[in-house]
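= Tokenised fold =
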Amino acid sequence: MSCQKIRTFSHALWQTSKSTSLCKVYVASCGSVASTGPTTQIGECFENEQSCGSDLIQPARSTAIPTSPSPANHRHVAGNKQKVSPTLSERAFTTGLKIDSKTYLWSRYNEMKRLVHDLIPPGVCNLLNPSTIYANNEVDLDEVDIYGFDYDYTLALYSNTLDTMIYNTARDFLVKHYKYPEGISKYDYIPNFAARGLHYDIQKGLLMKIDAFHYIQLGTVYRGLKPVPDDEVLELYGGTHHVPLQEVSGFYGKGPMMKQFMDVFSIPEMTLLAAANDYFISNDIEYDPGHLYKDVSDAIGMVHIKGYMYKWIMQDLEKYILRGDETYAVLHHLASHGKKLFLITNSPFSFVDKGMKYMVGKDWRDFFDVVIVQADKPHFFNNCGKPFRRLDGNGDLQWDKIKSLDKGQIYKQGNLFDFLRLTGWRGSKVLYFGDHLYSDLADLMLRHGWRTGAIVPELEMETRVVNTEQYAQSLTWLQALTGLLERMQMHRDPKSKEVLQDWLKEREELRAVTKNLFNPHFGSIFRTCHNPTFFSRRLCRFSDLYMASISCLLNYDLSYTFYPRRTPLQHEAPLWMDQLCTGCMKTPFLEEMAHIR
């Protein structure tokens, strides 16, 4: 398929609705330059109108686009060329034929459906690479001299088995120590129920997804394990599904009414909250949701405080720790290029030491210039009251005054202000990676000017979904249908209203389809229908870069510059060349990972 066809499709869709953004998605698929090639090929492609990347762009053979009640247009084939007879709206325009509004609307529907069906390039379904690093802000790695890391879910990735163990232990603790009903013990862990970034209404006992504008996404509100009807949600929140700023969350994700669950460790906690709520509701037992929230939070906390999680992992490192060889490869890659490395984690030294020896080797400390354990983040980043303490080789506290942070030593607690004073590591020459947007990244980004990289393991799964043909076709038709609704809403006679209602119903069905591809309960962690989620907005605010794991660094050399895509604002015209030249589809050094995976 030629680039001219892609441009024609994009132009038609843009004319249908200024707010429809799907055209810029598919024009970006024109040619392999989107993922690997130089930008000079783009100019040649558009100038010569030649076929670009025929392996990516071929005639669609989808059957997922919905059919309409109106007859489809007939095609007349002559030789190798296909001629399409004029549409009903085209004939009406050229001949002055009068048609009723209902027929006209379905004709426009069919025209758009034909464009989507015929011109979506199937190759677009495999353009996103799960090992890509995504940029919210421009970052030149050549300017970064110091790399810092959190430990859990950053240097060390864990298997889903750990979530089950955390859930089971906290559930049993809730029953045995807090004397909750034995019936709760019958609730097993549900691996794919909760998702990161959800909010929990503490007093109402509701788990939900909220978008960047503080609106609850209807259809994602759960009381226990059952969804709450939309009309009941509106009634519970005073006739609206908007949650005021002061109730949603404070700077670290917890407000007076709501708690946002932001790290991967929080998924078992959300599932236990849902299970306990479900037990009380199903058995018609009166209870206080506020007390339940506190007790579940304490039970989950005891799994960490009493060291259960550390014990499980240290006893079976192979079972719980994933892809440790990639962690070694990243550290070796950075150190061999003269970069300074440091570690700041809340985990204890004995736990970190055993895990790092398993992943990196017994000399793992040689990679790091500074190692800090039990740092008590986020307080480490905003409180100057705690001094550093040195640990000996056995992990025992030493009494000497800390006048410098030396390589080969282990330090406990401390604070960022002393860290900056003793190291001199300031500003954009420092890049720190962590999985918790609030505890790991927010202060560093907003108050100290460090570069930050968010580790989002969910990206791997979500990228696989986005790369499917079903998702691409469903989303494209959803956007096209939304554009039709926007342009055709001025038809307000009774028959036209019936058509528009049919379209609105189909739009809601398509939204449900795309949501369920990610998670049947809560959908994608990044979007609520068309808006970014509250989690997604915080991700953009607190991280310069984000990626599925630190091993994504192996895809790029250390002088690489990340350029964020210039997403058009609502009042701006989309700039196709900008979408082609920058963005998420460039992963230049994938061969470097071949020996690791």
